Amino acid sequence: MGDNRRRRSWRQLACFALAIVFSAGLSTAPAIAESDSGERECQDVTVPVALSAGTPKNQHIFGRLCVPAGQSPDTIQVLVHGITYTHEYWHFPDPSEGTARYDYSMAANDAGYATLAIDRIGSGRSSHPLSTLIDIDTNAYTVH
Fold this sequence. Notes:
Elements: H1 3-22, E1 27-28, E2 34-36, E3 40-49, E4 59-68, E5 76-80, H2 104-110, E6 114-119, H3 136-143
Parallel strand pairs: 5-6
Antiparallel strand pairs: 1-3, 2-3, 3-4, 4-6
């Protein structure tokens, strides 16, 4: 199987999984696809979401999708950060050695899993609606 075909197959898998996970359309952020040293392929994505049932999907969740290079994983781990963090929580750099030893996403990719590290609604590169609209329920609904 050629490299282009492999890339196409993991992208198809990722789109299918995101459609199931988020029950929404997938849109790619402009020109952010990249490769990390040939070990994995990462791409920034946005998914339109509603804040609750019956409301319009006028917000978006940002995520960084990373897939082991040349593989088509069967599982995508959705990585959700805690309060005061962003998707970067899962890609924490080693402050002393410049290694990836604190990068959970890379470790999961090395184990054969795809990862989608998201910014919760109101955090990072996701939409920032009025703070009075964000609570535990809207966080759960948008991740679901």
